[in-house]
Write a structure and sequence with these properties.
single chain, about 350 residues, mainly alpha, Bromodomain, NET_dom, NET_sf
Amino acid sequence: MTPMNGAPAAAAAATLPELPPEAESVVDAFRRQVEDLVSKTDVLERRVNEVVDFYDGKKHGSSGRKAGGGSRGGHTRGMPDLMRQFGLIMREITSDKLAWPFLKPVDVKALQLDDYYKIISKPMDFSTIEKKMEGKDGTKYSSVREIYSDVRLIFTNAMKYNDEQNEIHLMAKALLGKFEEKWLHFLPRVESEEKRQKEESKDVAPTNTCREASIAKLAKVTDEELNEINKQLDELRKMVVQRCRKMTTVEKRKLGAGLCHLSPDDLSKALEIVAQDNPSFQTKAEEVDLDMDAQSETTLWRLKFFVREALERQANVVSGKDENAKRKREIVSALAQTASKRIKRQP
């Protein structure tokens, strides 16, 4: 069964018979029910997005800022500003004439320091610190105190590995003293920011708890309403099929012709409809032999409705019209498939 695209879709749609006037009123009633369900679905879609956005924000640590307006200027600016200010201190240290041995990692191999890693458990240098400050290696400092500890480690490593009279030891000791003096002047600002954040987190926590409880309730209600819509869609599908008469041989032939004009995606969906009532039907085979006479009336009429809409949709896509209706049909179709799958899983 080979799908066809483009202009033939419009002509193929015409091969399917028009419904008689008395049936049109029934179809209109069903269509109104579908539109009502689509309207409800739009509302539920916005709720789902709200729930997803909240938990995404919580996962990335931003739910507190969204929930508590007072924290907007704090966590986002306070600590990063301190890190930038601390970066100025680092530049003063690294620009010192004694700093050159500590700018890059120790080249253990070139210097033949075979015992270096036995003595130094955590090597550190300024280039490594700068990369971590910029997040280049996938890790990033969360506080100024972490950077302070690593800068201090650079000099204590050098003093630990080299003897007290060694030139590198003396250079590290001199720079450490200079760095510690600058840190003591900078420390009050760090402590002030840490205190402010601690107090702020106390105010934000209750707000976050209330917000999360509200979102959890919204998620529960939305899930219940989605389940109800799925039930309504399934009932609507059953009502439509029950009203259908037995399909004639001519209609089956025209239905088969319509299937041949479907796009590859729509053809796959049509074959899935067949497989729902016939689990042994192979939808993924390269060649599919579909016997119309062997299908149930339910399957035949579901196929007919699907093919009619699919061919009309293909014709509209070609002409560039009815994009909004296309979106609504896709939503309803997705919900209908979900409902069908759930019902089949029930014992």
